[in-house]
Amino acid sequence: MNDPASKLIVALDYPSPAEALVFVDSLEGACRWFKIGLELYCAGGYGLIGTLRERGFEVFLDLKLHDIPNTVAGAVRSLATSGASLLTIHAAGGEAMMRAAAEAATQPGAPRLLAVTVLTSMDAAALEAIGVASSPAEQVARLAHLAVNSGIDGLVCSSAEVEALRATLPPATLLVTPGIRPAGAAIGDQRRIATPSSAIAAGSSMLVVGRPITQALDPAAAARLILDEIAST
């Protein structure tokens, strides 16, 4: 994954496929990967994934599946025909759920699985409020190792934990990092953030960037600046 375009995922945080595709066109082919989250998937479903794939793009389907093992495994099997290359599940679903998902993902066409550990919008106070006494770093490490030992391909984790995870997990583990903000960009609702270069240097495999590109006056130029920063790392 030495090509910078293989390391940048642009979040299509739009309520409708039409708006998302207008934005995709505005990037003028600068980016290869796009993230479809729950809101947009509910609006566009397989149709939008198919359109992006027909245009030569890769899709990261961020649904954060979290249910009983049989239900999650069934969802993974259903999504094997969607065309998505990456799919998220919640590590908090536990070992049995993740093992069932990993087994379902062995069928042809199934996406590679990423486990979400601790959402980047959550800090120590937010974790404590839901009964987790561990720090974000401790909770991420616990769930990350559980996920990898359960057969999951990689993790979604903040830049704050990437370096430690990269040092302790198998080298092939994908580490996908949201909460990326170029220097000077607004933080928004993210708590654990990093610049593109610092995240890559820490060991991130891929970066998820939303508002710094989607809300830029010139999205294509903003994307190219981030790609240049990745390339220089």
TrEMBL record:
SUPFAM superfamilies: Ribulose-phoshate binding barrel
Binding site for substrate: 13, 35, 62-71, 120, 181, 190, 210-211
Function: Catalyzes the decarboxylation of orotidine 5'-monophosphate (OMP) to uridine 5'-monophosphate (UMP).
SMART domains: OMPdecase
Subunit note: Homodimer.
Origin species: Granulicella rosea
GO molecular-function terms, A-Z: orotidine-5'-phosphate decarboxylase activity
GO BP, one annotated term: 'de novo' pyrimidine nucleobase biosynthetic process
Chemical reaction(s) catalysed: orotidine 5'-phosphate + H(+) = UMP + CO2
Top-level taxon of the source organism: Bacteria
Annotated active site: D62, K64, D67
Name of the top EC class for this enzyme: lyase
Protein name per UniProt: Orotidine 5'-phosphate decarboxylase
EC number of the protein: 4.1.1.23
Pathway noted in the entry: Pyrimidine metabolism; UMP biosynthesis via de novo pathway; UMP from orotate: step 2/2
Domain Orotidine 5'-phosphate decarboxylase: 7-226
Pfam families reported in the protein's UniProt record: OMPdecase
UniProt keyword list: Decarboxylase, Lyase, Pyrimidine biosynthesis
GO cellular component: cytosol
Similarity remark: Belongs to the OMP decarboxylase family. Type 1 subfamily.
